[in-house]
Structure to design on (244 residues):
């Protein structure tokens, strides 16, 4: 996410980009940051934070498998960020799996239920929940992966009453067939692309809508957080990605 004290030079916009007033710095965190001093984070220019509520669990969670499932730091991170005056929302790190579409849907609903159980009811001004869609995807083909994503989004929207954000990157989204279906359905895009002046946006520039949030580094630093942290910036106003 954005580095504290980011200079005006870094925030200068390319032609046609969003106004500087909307380029709000943000971070996203999980249990991998351990305990965070949110009061100190609140003294920086960080304006929003996504905190991990859950990760896929079971055999499909092959990355740090002993730290999957519910995020034990979620409640502390959510409450701490909110108390510090930082706009906060929850995300789920998907580990999509299944043998065919029916199995993929069951797996997605199980992960969605875990996420909803962690998050509970949304509050006004919370950030809209986000689904982290990135490889690995087990043995799912394009059609089954699209079914997985659709099932998770549908379950969370029905339970929480909002249309979730999709987090991904161009290479991971290719595994869906680079579908623009979810862009057309109105799901905002949170795109990851590091070390570039502007991000590569999948699905035909997200069906012409472009990105709403850009995660531009995984090695940022922020006062109050030990070690590296993901940093983000907005292209739209916070109201566009918040619960009303």
């Amino acid at each position: 996410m954005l580095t504290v004290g980011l200079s005006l030079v870094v925030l200068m916009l390319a032609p046609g980009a969003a106004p500087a007033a909307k380029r709000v710095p943000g971070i996203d965190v999980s249990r991998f940051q351990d305990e965070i001093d949110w009061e100190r984070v609140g003294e920086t220019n960080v304006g929003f934070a996504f905190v991990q509520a859950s990760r896929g669990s079971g055999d499909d969670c092959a990355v740090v498998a002993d730290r999957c499932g519910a995020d034990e730091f979620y409640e502390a991170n959510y409450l701490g960020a909110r108390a510090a005056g930082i706009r906060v929302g929850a995300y789920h790190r998907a580990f999509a799996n299944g043998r065919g579409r029916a199995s993929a849907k069951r797996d997605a609903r199980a992960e969605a239920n875990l996420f909803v159980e962690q998050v509970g009811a949304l509050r006004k001004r919370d950030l809209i929940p986000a689904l982290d869609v990135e490889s690995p995807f087990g043995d799912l083909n394009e059609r089954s992966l699209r079914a997985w994503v659709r099932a998770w989004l549908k379950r969370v929207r029905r339970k929480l009453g909002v249309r979730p954000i999709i987090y991904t990157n161009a290479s991971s989204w290719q595994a869906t067939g680079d579908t623009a279906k979810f862009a057309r359905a109105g799901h905002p895009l949170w795109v990851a692309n590091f070390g570039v002046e502007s991000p590569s946006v999948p699905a035909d520039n997200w069906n012409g809508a472009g990105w709403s949030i850009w995660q531009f580094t995984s090695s940022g630093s922020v006062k109050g957080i030990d070690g590296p942290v993901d940093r983000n910036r907005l292209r739209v106003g916070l109201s566009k990605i918040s619960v009303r």
Remarks:
- The longest helix spans residues 101-119.
